[in-house]
Every structure is written in C-alpha cells, then in structure tokens.
Amino acid sequence: MKTIVAMLVTLSLIGVVSGGGLAMLSSWADPLIAANKKADTERAIFLVQPSAKSYEKVEKVAFELYRVFDETKNPLGYALPWEGNGFQGKVRMMVGVSADLNTITAIEVLDQVETPGLGTKVTEEPFRKQFQGLVAVPQVDWVKGVPPTKENEIQTITGATISSKAIVGIVNDGLAHLRKDMAQGGAQ
Amino acid sequence: MELILIFLSAALVNNFVLAYFLGICPFIGVSNKLSSAFPMGLATTFVMVLTAIVTWLIYHLILVPYHVEYLEYVSFILVVAALVQFVEMVIKKVSQPLYRALGIFLPLITTNCAILGLALFIVLKDYSFVESLFFGVGAGTGFTLAISIMAGIREELDLADIPKSFRGAPITLIVAGLLALAFMGFAGMITV
Amino acid sequence: MKKQVSLSKEYAKGLWDQNPVFKQVLGMCPTLAVTVSAMNGIAMALATTFVLVFSSFIISLIRKLIPSQVRIASYIVIIATFVTIVDLVMRAQFPDLSKALGPYIPLIVVNCVILGRQEAFAAKNNPLRSVLDALGMGTGFMLALASLGGIREIIGSRTLLGMQVLPDAFEPWLVMILPAGAFLTLGLMMGFLNSLVERRKRRDEAAVLAQHMRTPAAAMLEGQEG
C-alpha cells in the first residue's frame, strides 16, 4: 500500500512540475513560432511577386490566398500557396500570378522531399526562372529534351522529369481552382 | 484509393526503416534469425496499429480541444509505454503460445523509435482517423518486410567470409545500405 | 561499492572507450537520419546533449525518491519534458535549423542513449558524476555525428559546413546524401575503426609479450609491427 502511494505521488508530482513548466514555456514560445511562420509566408509572397509592396489575405475563399499591391495600392495579382504530389511525397509551393490570372510572375518551392541532387533541382534558379512571365492560359505545358517553343511551355529537367511535371501539375491545379473561384465571384 | 496509396507508401516507398531510419535498434539487434525477426515484426505492427488509434484519439479529443499541444511528446511516449505493457498483459492472459512467441520482444518495442515516429507523423501529416489506421498498418508491414529480408540475408552472411572487424554491426549497416538502394526502386511508382 | 574512477575519466570514457555510436551502437536513428551535413549533425548532437545533461542531473538528484517500480516511467516523462523544451526553443529561435532536423527532434525522447544513461549511470551516481558522464556521452555522440555528417557532406555535396572544399570537377556522389549513403558510410566507418583497434591491440599484445619473455616469435612480431 505504502509503495503504491509513493508511486502515485512521485508520478503525479513529476507530471505536475513538467506540465506546469511546459505551459509557461509554451506561452512564451507560441507567439514567436507563429511570427516565424508568418515571416516565412511573407517572404515567399514577396519572392513570387517581386514588384509587390504590400499584401492582404483574401478571406472569402476556401483556400489560402493573398492579394498583392504596388506602392499606390493598385492590385498587382495574387500569391497562391498550393500543394500536390511530387516524386516521393508532398510538394508545397507558392505561385505568383497576375491579376487577370493569365501570366505567372514567379514560383517558389516551400517544402519538398524530392531526391537530393536530382528532383531537388526543381527548387533551383534555372528551373524556376522558366516560370517568370510564363503564360498560363489555357494551362502550363511542358516539353522534354528540347527548348520550349510556345510561350506557355517550360522544359523539364533531365533526370528529374517526374518532379518537373509535378511542379507544372501543381501550378495548373492551383490556378484551375483559383479561376473557378473567380468565375463564381468568390475572390472579388 | 487514397488509403491504398497511404498504405503502399508507408510500406514500400517511404519505408520506416530504410528511408526514415526509424526502428534501427531492433532492426540491427533482432535481425540475426528469421525465426525471431518475423515475430518481432508482427508484434511491432500490432503495437503500431494500436498506437495509431490511441494517439490519434488523444491528440484530437484531448490535446487539441484543451490547447495543450505542447504535452504531445510527454503524453505520446507514456501512451506507447502503457500500451506495450497492456498488450503484454493481454497476450499473456489470452494465449500462452502467442505470449511465448512475442513476449520477449514486447518490452523492446517501447524504445523502438518507429512507434513514436508513427504517432508524430500522424500529427505532422494531419491524417484522418481512417488514414492513420492505414498508415499504421502500412508502416508495420514495411517494418516487418525490412527486418525479415534483413534476417534472411544475415542467415546467409553467417556462412560468408567477412573480415573480422566488419562482423556484426558494420556489415549489417552496409547490407542495410544496399537494401535501401534497392527500395529506392519503389520511389516514383507510388506517390502520396 | 564499486571503485570510484577519477572525474576526468568519467567524462573521457564517452569520447571513445564507450562511444555511444561506435562502441555501444546506440542512438542509430538520429545518427543516420540527420547527418546529410556536418552542421545538422552538430545541431542534433547539441540538442541531444542538452537533454541528456539536464535529465541526468535531475534524475540523479531525485534518484533516491523515485520508487523503483515507476522509475522508467518517471525517466521517460522527465526526458520528454526536456525534449519539448528544446523543440519549443528551437522552433521559436532557430526556425531554419528546426525545419532541417524535422521530426527527429521529438524522436530524441526515444534515443536509447539517453534512457540508457539514466538507467545505467544517473540512477546510481551523484549529480556531479552524472553530469560529467552525460557531457562525455554527448561529446562522443557529437564526434560521431559530426564526422559522419562531414564525410557525407564532403563527398555528397562537395562542401563542409556550407563551404565548398572539393573542386567543381569532382562530381558529387549523390548516394552519400541519400538514406543508403548513411548506412554505407556508417558501416564502413565502424568497420575501419574496428580494424584500427584490432591492429593496436595486436601491437600492444606483441609489445607485452616481447617485454616479458623475449621469445623469438614475439620479437619477430614486434619487428613486423614496428
């Protein structure tokens, strides 16, 4: 009996001390963690909309969407976080698009688990650069092995064809959702 | 369809042992004989499925509603430890043969990082209850597969002439590396 | 009562004689998973050492108050608490590092090195010795992770701590930063270290033999090794 009491008392004491300590620490850390997350999103928005000066979250849509403005508060376009399947797992990206949704400003890969050295090349400058100013109507297309001839085409990376196609797929999928929402007047 | 993909992805493409390095301790420790490796895999799978269920419930019914997500690690590891103890007791009561087959492996499972890893991944990937279940079964199957293949190879290795300083852990790691390379062949076949 | 070893030895034994990775083959998950670069390895080892030192200190302080039936449960709760502290602080102050190490920070909870040291050492020794032991093990862990991470980073991406060390002409071996590379590198490193130890042991034996009984065989052995 005595040992059972001792066991219970020790365990609950340790539990209370640890829980209390963590509660205090978490009340300090939570705002900082939230701020880090916000800074990350903010950085990605300005990366895909280089000429933007400010942004606001579009509230009326079912997904995350940011509208960006120039210095005189004229709407420039949108920054759309979107995710889809890559070669080995989820790829999360930020897509910048003009206000009429016809031209991509830039893209940025936020999270990915592609094969290091091959699939990860889609996060690098040479590949991403192809998307700057790319025409996105009717949709983005890809070509393999030859330089793109149409203005809505990009060239896939040798050795990372699936990852390259995945990026194109995510961009198209995100834009399709955005257009559908626009047609219904949701994002206006 | 999505559920089958989650299962296959956890079992083959993102194999817990060979791609995430979870559960390496038993993978190296208990993989010298197929006759012990396979039951170990089964016991681990069993605990994994239970863990997937219980930790999902705890996270979504207790931790989230009361905003105490910071107790995640503490509560998960306690749950795993308690669960293993509980499973051991139940098996002992219900089936003596099963207990004799799995009993000695159960305590080892508590410190198997694959179990806690599974619980953490379920939270990280924001799986639904059913998805978590499939993920748990898939991860367990993957673990069983990896440890059984490894045991099969090591039984053959016993007959091979390995330099003295490479016997034991070093050669096991090298073989695991080759296995990991082989499992990379599954990548891209299934994407989740 | 077991013989007391000197305090400096309490620290130093973790570096090599009982190195958690190379000698005890413990804590394999983080060792293999995060060592794609030397920096990741060092960060992981620092986080682990922090948890190890503080858990050892606390557990050694209250070791006589914990009933033995619930000691493992108590250890686990204390370890998990410190891991949560590390995780929260890293996410708040070093978000990039926390992203790189991902879910392997919470997995420090089940790093067998930590629970192993509590059970094998902190539960039986005073706080000073426990902290020294923990620091030693932590340093040993860091040596292993930094060297493994360094080797994989140099061959896998031509850099060390982010600076390029190999010329562009060297085509990086992608396999080194893939999971398979982790297993292969650690396996080869352990085998190589074992063979060094073997060789030294043989030389020591030969030296002892030669000193005590100057047999022709021993003299010959000594000559060979020298």
List the helices and strands and how they pair.
The complex is a heterotrimer of chains A (188), B (192) and C (226).
Chain A: H1 2-48, E1 54-57, E2 66-69, E3 75-85, E4 90-98, E5 104-111, H2 125-129, E6 141-143, E7 153-155, H3 161-183
Parallel strand pairs in A: 6-7
Antiparallel strand pairs in A: 1-2, 2-3, 3-4, 4-5
Chain B: H1 2-13, H2 24-29, H3 34-63, H4 72-94, H5 96-102, H6 106-110, H7 113-124, H8 129-157, H9 169-183
Helix pairs in contact in B: 1-8, 3-4, 3-7, 3-8, 4-5, 4-7, 8-9
Chain C: H1 7-12, H2 28-33, H3 38-61, H4 71-93, H5 95-101, H6 112-122, H7 127-157, E1 159-160, E2 163-164, H8 179-212, H9 216-225
Antiparallel strand pairs in C: 1-2
Q: Distance between termini of chain A?
A: 70 Å
Oligomer: heterotrimer
Side-by-side strand order of the widest sheet of chain A:
1-2-3-4-5
Number of alpha- plus pi-helical segments of chain A: 3
Instruction: Please tell me the overall pLDDT of chain C.
Output: 83
Strand order of the largest sheet of chain C: 1-2
| Low-pLDDT residue intervals, each spanning 5 or more residues of chain C | none
Q: Estimate the helix proportion of chain C, in percent.
A: 55-70%
Sequence of secondary-structure elements of chain C: HHHHHHHEEHH
| Overall 3D shape of chain C | flat
- The low-confidence runs of chain A, each spanning 5 or more residues with pLDDT under 50, are none
In N-to-C order, the SSE pattern of chain A is HEEEEEHEEH
Question: What does it look like?
Answer:
The complex is a heterotrimer of chains A (188), B (192) and C (226). Chain A is α+β, with helices and mostly antiparallel strands and 188 residues long. Chain A has 3 helices and 7 strands; from the N terminus they run αβββββαββα. Chain A is elongated. In chain B, helix 3 packs across helix 4 and helix 3 packs antiparallel against helix 8. Chain B has one domain. Chain B has 192 residues and is mainly α. Chain B starts with a helix and ends in a 9-residue tail after the last helix. Chain C has one domain. The two termini of chain C are 42 Å apart. The mean pLDDT of chain C is 83. Classes of the chains: A alpha+beta (188), B mainly alpha (192), C mainly alpha (226).
